[in-house]
Design a protein that fits this description.
The chain is of the alpha/beta class. It folds into 2 domains: about 230 residues, NAD(P)-binding Rossmann-like Domain (Rossmann fold, 3-Layer(aba) Sandwich); about 110 residues, no CATH class. The protein has 18 helices and 11 strands. It has a 7-stranded parallel beta sheet, with helices on both faces. Helix 5 links the parallel strand 5 and strand 6. It is elongated and about 85 Å long.
Length: about 450
């Protein structure tokens, strides 16, 4: 093999996600040329990767657009981290987990064939590194796992050089999905049902995935091109779900006395998670996640260790490296409260608007008429403001419009307070202090805005 003169360019597809962001951060810190690609990036990611990030809707792109984008990236190695756990409105799981991979493989095959037709047999095909899931295909019980396995089969028979990575329970600096949930559970006095807590749960330090890609890049520079590998990247001796939770509880100073929740509560929570996912939210507790966790996370890292020369970090050591800082503890404690904050604000706005529009309509109208408003105008104002309240609640309910709803709620609350001070000042000293309570509701909406980001 001949050493290549230039360092390889790595394009990370799905770079805004947990694994994609971890890979980009690790490789960039080691001085590699990385191009992060995703549908959208957070403000923090845009600031960190300014001038490098490429924003485009990869999964929804038509084949010609994807082909043009891949060609423009000029990457030697493509790392695909794109995936979806469960169906969402307008986004079936098969589109991200299977169909996109099939289109990507098709594009890469055509690109290789075209280079030969153009009389350039020396142009090397791009190496595809695909992040998949661990486990035996015979145990696949969800659309998520079946579609992931179908994508692996498409890659394996493509004739392209490839490496398929099977990480376990990925634990990274960032908290998202399952890792965010485990952090939150660690500071609550609850244990998972015994049947679930005893399941094998092999941990993968996200940095081990980055190290694996780095080994591949080093081999690429020596001229190696023939890759056909499947690697289970995870600790050698699998932890259990319960031991991971206990390790995080120790690290984050969670309560020592814990109550074991019954299985039906977890099932109910997963069904509630399925329901709110149709509103655009991505709760970590959904039916697919529960089934996949119950199956357990296991694998054999021997091939990966032999081909890369790497040794995985054990689960306990990975968890012990978690920063036990105040911001970690704040996040863990606020994570579950976030859902309660959003939920109570939805109820507050919808119910208050509904009450004023129905059973309390006459009383609400009378407040205005008692202060000099004509009855038709008072009724119109009551109807309009009630509908505005309900609209704000419904806006907060949906993930895409939640921020707008919270901002509108703050603005309308301030308007109510100022209007009351000018028009109906006696309402400020009514026995139940309805207007005084508007201030705390504004603060709660500000807290909702502060914890709204998921990545």
């Amino acid at each position: 093999m001949t050493r290549i003169s230039h360092p390889p360019i790595v394009a990370v597809l799905g770079a805004s996600g947990l694994i994609g962001e971890a890979i980009c951060g690790y490789l960039m810190a080691q001085g590699h040329k990385v191009v992060p690609v995703a549908r959208r990036f957070t403000p923090v990611q845009n600031a960190a990767w300014e001038g490098l990030a490429v924003q485009m809707p990869l999964v929804d792109a038509e084949r010609p657009a994807l082909q043009a984008a891949i060609s423009k990236l000029q990457a030697d190695v493509i790392v695909n981290c794109i995936g979806a756990l469960q169906d969402a409105p307008g986004s079936p799981v098969a589109r991200a987990n299977r169909d996109f991979v099939a289109t990507l493989v098709d594009v890469l095959q055509d690109e290789t064939s075209e280079s030969h037709r153009d009389g350039q047999p020396g142009r090397d095909p791009r190496l595809l590194i695909h992040v998949s899931i661990p486990g035996d295909g015979r145990d696949d019980l969800t659309d998520f796992s079946r579609e992931k396995r179908a994508a692996e089969a498409t890659i394996a028979r493509s004739g392209l050089p490839f490496i398929i990575l099977h990480p376990g329970f990925v634990y990274a600096e960032a908290a998202y999905g399952g890792s965010a949930l485990m952090r939150a559970l660690a500071v609550l006095p609850f244990d998972l049902p015994e049947a679930l807590a005893s399941r094998p749960f092999a941990v993968t330090d996200a940095r081990d995935i980055g190290r694996s890609v780095e080994v591949v890049l080093a081999d690429w520079t020596t001229g190696r091109r023939a890759w056909q590998s499947h690697w289970d990247i995870m600790e050698t001796e699998a932890s259990t779900v319960g031991s991971v939770l206990a390790g995080l509880a120790r690290r984050l100073a969670g309560p020592k006395r814990r109550i074991r929740v019954p299985g039906w509560m977890l099932t109910t929570a997963s069904r509630a998670g399925d329901l709110v996912s149709w509103l655009g939210w991505r709760p970590p507790v959904r039916s697919t996640a529960l089934v996949e966790m119950a199956r357990g996370v296991t694998g054999d890292s021997a091939t990966w260790r032999r081909e890369t020369g790497l040794d995985p970090l054990s689960g306990p050591r990975t968890l012990a490296m978690t920063a036990a800082t105040v911001q970690e503890r704040w996040f863990a404690r606020l994570y579950m409260l976030k859902a309660m904050i959003i939920g109570i604000l939805v109820v507050f706005w919808v119910v208050s608007g509904g009450i004023a529009l129905t059973v309390a309509f006459d009383a609400a109208t009378r407040i205005l008429t008692d202060h000099g408003f004509a009855e038709p105008l008072a009724k119109a104002i009551t109807i309009v403001t009630s509908l505005m309240d309900i609209s704000i609640g419904l806006a907060i309910l949906h993930r895409r419009t939640c921020r707008i709803g919270l901002l509108a709620g703050i603005a309308l609350s301030l308007f109510y307070m100022i209007s009351a001070a000018l028009i109906t000042p006696d309402m400020w000293i009514e026995p139940l202090g309805a207007l005084v309570k508007t201030g705390p509701s504004i603060i709660l909406m500000m807290v909702g805005l502060a914890v709204l980001e998921e990545r």
